[in-house]
Write a structure and sequence with these properties.
This protein has 2 domains: 115 residues, Deoxyuridine 5'-Triphosphate Nucleotidohydrolase, Chain A, CATH 2.70.40; 90 residues, no CATH class. The protein has 2 helices and 19 strands.
Length: 252
C-alpha cells in the first residue's frame, strides 16, 4: 500500500473513499461553487473536486468513469482514463461529459468519478530501423475482424414513450443525490429523466411522466392553453416553466 497526500483547496472538499474492501478505484467527489451545476445534454464540463494531490514518485493516478453513473445517466469521464502525473500539485479536475438526452444535476458531495493508483514504467526512446518481423505486420484497425457497419435506418430504437399505452408505465425513483433538483424519474427502458418533467393529465387527473422523445412531437403546454410560452424557472436553473405551470428542460 502507498501513501498519497491530499490538500483541500475548496470548502466542502472530501478525501477519496473506497466503496468496498476490494474496490480498486476510490470515489472522487464534486465541489460546486453555486450549490449545484446543470450539465446539459451533450455538454462537457471540467468539474472541480476541491483537492490537490501528491502522488509518490513512480506512480500515476488514473481518473475513470463510474460505471453506474455512465450506465444509468450517461455521465462519463471524457478522457477516461485521465492521467495525473506524480509531479502535479494543482487541483484535481475531472472532465465530465453528458451523453444522455436530458440535463444532469451535479451537486457538492456527489461521486462523479473514481481514481486508481498504478505503477509507471518509463521508457527510453531510440531510433532503430530494424524491427522484429511479425505475422501481423502493419495491419491496423479492423485487421482481425469484428463488428460490421449497420444500416442506421433499420436500427432505429423504438422508445416505449412513443407508444401511447405505455406512457403511464413510469415509476418514481429516489433522488440520485440530496435535493429536489437532483431527483429523477425512471422510464420503462431504464432511462432517467428530471423529476420536474411531470404534469397533471386531463384524462384521469393522474400524474403522467413524459420523456424528451415524446415532447419533441407532443408538448403538453399546448393543452394548457397559450401554446409554447415559457419563462425561467428560478427554482431549477436550466429549466423553463410553461404557462400551464409545468417545468421542462431548456431546449425542448
Amino acid at each position: 500500500m502507498i501513501k498519497v497526500k491530499f490538500k483541500s483547496t475548496k470548502v466542502g472538499a472530501k478525501l477519496p473513499t473506497y466503496g468496498t474492501a476490494g474496490a480498486a478505484g476510490a470515489d472522487l467527489y464534486a465541489v460546486v461553487e453555486e450549490d449545484f451545476y446543470i450539465l446539459q445534454r451533450g455538454q462537457r464540463w471540467t468539474c472541480p473536486t476541491g483537492i490537490a494531490i501528491e502522488i509518490p514518485d513512480g506512480y500515476e493516478g488514473q481518473v475513470r468513469s463510474r460505471s453506474g453513473l455512465a450506465a444509468k445517466c450517461g455521465i462519463s469521464v471524457l478522457n477516461s482514463p485521465g492521467t495525473i502525473d506524480c509531479d502535479y500539485r494543482g487541483e484535481l479536475l475531472v472532465i465530465l461529459h453528458n451523453s444522455s438526452q436530458v440535463d444532469f444535476t451535479v451537486k457538492t458531495g456527489d461521486r462523479i468519478a473514481q481514481i486508481i493508483f498504478a505503477p509507471v514504467t518509463r521508457a527510453e526512446m531510440v531510433w532503430d530501423e530494424n524491427f522484429t518481423e511479425t505475422e501481423r505486420g502493419d495491419k491496423g484497425h479492423g485487421s482481425t475482424g469484428g463488428f460490421q457497419p449497420t444500416d442506421s435506418s433499420s436500427s432505429e430504437e423504438t422508445h416505449p414513450c412513443k407508444n401511447k399505452e405505455k406512457q403511464l408505465e413510469y415509476n418514481q425513483v429516489g433522488p440520485l443525490s440530496p435535493g429536489p433538483a437532483a431527483s429523477r424519474v425512471l422510464c420503462t427502458k431504464g432511462r432517467h429523466y428530471p423529476a420536474t418533467m411531470k404534469y397533471e393529465s386531463k384524462d384521469d387527473g393522474k400524474v403522467v411522466l413524459r420523456c424528451p422523445m415524446c415532447l419533441q412531437s407532443e408538448d403538453p403546454c399546448n393543452e394548457a392553453g397559450g401554446g409554447k410560452q415559457y419563462h425561467l424557472d428560478k427554482d431549477h436553473p436550466g429549466y423553463h416553466v410553461s404557462r400551464g405551470g409545468s417545468s421542462w428542460p431548456k431546449g425542448l
